[in-house]
Amino acid sequence: MPILVEILLLIAGLILVVLGADALVDGASSVAKRLGVSEFVIGLVIVGFGTSCPELVVSLTGAFKGNADISVGNVVGSNIFNTLLILGLTAVVAPVAVTSSNSRKDIPLALLISFLFVFLAVQGDGISRFEGILFLLLFIAYIIFSFKSSKASSAQDDSEQTRTRGLGVSILMILLGLAGLIIGGQLFVDNACSLARELGVSDKIIAITLLAGGTSLPELATCIVAAAKHKDQLALGNILGSNVFNILLILGCSAVVTPLSTISMNFVDFGVLLLSAILIWLFTYTGTRNRIDRWEGALLVASFIAYFAYLFIQ
Known about the structure:
This protein is mainly alpha-helical. The chain has a single domain (39-151, 202-313), classed as A middle domain of Talin 1, CATH 1.20.1420.30. The protein has helices spanning 3-35, 39-51, 53-64, 68-93, 100-124, 129-148, 167-198, 203-214, 217-228, 232-257, 267-283, 294-313, and strands at residues 96-97, 126-127, 260-261, 291-292. The strands form two sheets. The chain has a two-stranded antiparallel ribbon. A two-stranded antiparallel ribbon has the order 2-3. The longest helix is centred in the N-terminal third of the chain and has 33 residues, at 3-35. The chain is globular.
């Protein structure tokens, strides 16, 4: 394919991602107001699930082909990318407010789920089918708990500037937004990889950068747009929801298909995964309480860069 065509498709992919994120954020906010639930829960369930679709496809494909390393590596890498880089950049753009419900329930739950995954992975060198079923049961319980404990937040009062559309229109915006994110993200990754190969970039560098970041591109675009629109809870819910979905739903489904080996993951990978979850919890109590400040976002990004450098030199 001519380079000019690849560049145009890459740009088209980026445009689709941005437009998709904008439609998704507006549609999700409107649905939250219509249904009387918090934007956090909408971000957690609807947006979190939707933006995790690329990881689900990649991991299940790897599981069906018997390549468990892809499933586990994709989830570990995506969760680190989500928390350290995406949430970090989001907080740098605009400090992310954390509600008391987030600090008491949502963030500790996400942290516990990460610890459970690492414990099972290290203790048995993998995730068995039984543990995959356990993950799926926990996922169902987590979704039910999230909806039952959800109440419209104070940000959802009459003074909110969110434009309320018809429920059907809002759902259509969410679906179109997700389609734009996924299709645009795939266009971007495919053509960026093709261009990189033509420029002589090695497959290892492409895998670590473009492919690892590509499946998290929907989360990145959604969170940046949400931050710009001052939808902090939607952004935070998207990150926590994506991370929980990645572990409980994606690894659960993949492990049911075939037991997953975690031998390719080392203690540094698992340590950074846990550190990223711990930092979110700590940042709700440091600096400005119940907020992830810009300097804390910069620290998250710096941690990601350090881990990224480690991957290159190991």
